[in-house]
Description:
This protein is an alpha/beta fold. 39% of the residues lie in helices and 15% in strands. Helix 3 packs parallel to helix 4 and helix 10 runs parallel beside helix 13. The protein is globular and about 60 Å long.
Amino acid sequence: xxxxxxxxxxxxxxxxxxxxxxxxxxxxxxxxxxxxxxxxxxxxxxxxxxxxxxxxxxxxxxxxxxxxxxxxxxxxxxxxxxxxxxxxxxxxxxxxxxxxxxxxxxxxxxxxxxxxxxxxxxxxxxxxxxxxxxxxxxxxxxxxxxxxxxxxxxxxxxxxxxxxxxxxxxxxxxxxxxxxxxxxxxxxxxxxxxxxxxxxxxxxxxxxxxxxxxxxxxxxxxxxxxxxxxxxxxxxxxxxxxxxxxxxxxxxxxxxxxxxxxxxxxxxxxxxxxxxxxxxxxxxxxxxxxxxxxxxxxxxxxxxxxxxxxxxxxxxxxxxxxxxxxxxxxxxxxxxxxxxxxxxxxxxxxxxxxxxxxxxxxxxxxxxxx
Length: 370
């Protein structure tokens, strides 16, 4: 009997060393990815965000942190593309260290292809390298309004420009190295400008093939260094057939790219207004998928329940394609922290990113402990 008890304690001790916490075991089985996605902090909020990771993310067993960096880093490869105030290598090291300490996978994001502008402002890549613009004939407005005659939401770079990948891959490689990561998030959501009729390289080409080609180009580059590509999933959904429309899905025929991209690309499937069950579609296409809520707590809980149900009822082949949940926050870290800690007035409806985060992870905790 004593020998059996000793063996049991030895096994429990091994599991603790292997996982870092016995409590992690049911959560890991429940959801392989328990994520949080947010804009990287400004340099003066790094220490506060490190504390948030330590005190709020880690205790909730968040195991994946996606930081939208874009040009908020002091790039050495292309200093001309830095934001005027940007994170230093020392700042990033603080983030890396706290994530490693708490077994959180840290994944940086730079928006590739789309989201190269916002409202009336052109972002750094096209501002410095205007020759990469897919639609140079579309001028940025003095006062931005939607809808508009040009169909301008966000600018895109031309995926067929012969020099664009040299520049963007310099950024990708540098940011992946400083973040010490084995994965990279390329964004690629809400791409409205692709295969423009006036582009000398893209005109007349199939938009699905253009989109899939860019995904594969990025994926293949990352794979050379053993890294995995993550992207948002909206451009791979048919907005017309599903009724999801032009924001959460594609109305410009990029959706057929879902059958053309490599199967190891990780899909972040976001739906904010309704808990649509599109993870099933991605899983049936052979892709691993995470569901991504934003600001509606009730939807987040329903999406979590769906994800757990999918994993519980799927075939053996499909189960692990339902990969988990990622809370998204569409502000920088500092603004979110002000909301989270009650330093600014919140939406009276309760539909906020901080409330959604709390509701989602409270439900994960309850479910994992049952």
